[in-house]
Amino acid sequence: MDSNFLVDFNEGVAKFNLSGRLDTTNAPALSDELKELVGQNVEKIVFMANDLEYISSAGLRVIVFAKQKMGVDTQVFVVSPQQDVLDVIKMSGFDSFLKILDSFDD
Amino acid sequence: MEKLTLPAKLENYEQMISFIVNGAEAAGFDKATISKIHLACEEALVNVINYAYPDKQGDIEIGYNFSDDNSGFLIDIIDWGIEFNPLNKSEPDIEAPLDERPIGGLGIFFIRKIMDEVIYKRDRGRNILTLIKR
Fold it and tell me: What is the mean pLDDT of residues B82-110?
């Protein structure tokens, strides 16, 4: 589990790396990093999820917070999620406002 | 039944969830199912940790049992806190647009979607939540 999720913030694109689990124990740390972006010009939030093995409602809530707080024009991407994680995103219905991608090119 | 009792605090969460996941692995579920059981139990445990003991400290007792005779993998999550039936909370409308989605309710929704049976009982001062996966 990473304690530092943000890997890059450049030209309006904030890229986060998620690995291992995103659950009740570490979702608050991600939330803190996302809060730092509020009020800045964020066009896209990109969660690189290739190494993410597990996500719970705590993790999803933080991602949805990003979408709700940044504004209607900010796009939120989840890139290359593993099947278990994709199942949970779909179960929640949040795939209707997150963009799920196989890859992301800057 | 295998049992573990710990104070209902977030610092004990890892130990609680590992206990259950080890049991699910021993029961022979595949990786995807274990991940779902893990998720349902996280949601249930976090509810107890956050809400059962508003004014004082208290314990959670977790027990599991697996029977080959189709009764499945049974998990009991017991606390001695205020009466709280998590099943009473209304489920989120997962087709609502984002600005109409309140944040709560998703955990219970996951528990019900994942587990084959979810039973709540209030008995002698205890909340008993039973989750069953076949």
Answer: 75
The CATH code of the domain that includes B28 is 3.30.565.10
Instruction: Give pLDDT tens digits for B54-68.
Output: 999 999 999 999 987
* ipTM score for this prediction: 0.91
- Domain count across chain B: 1
Q: Is the Cβ–Cβ distance between A81 and A52 less than 8 Å?
A: yes
Is there a contact between A54 and B10 if contact means CB atoms under 8 Å apart?
no
User: Does A1 map to a domain?
Assistant: no
Is B91 an 8 Å CB contact of chain A? no
B32 touching chain A per CB within 8 A: yes
Strands B2-7 and A75-79: unpaired
Binary contact (B32, A92; C-beta < 8 A): no
- Note if the pTM is more than 0.90: yes
Q: Which domain holds residue A86?
A: 6-101
Interface membership of B89 toward A (CB under 8 Å): no
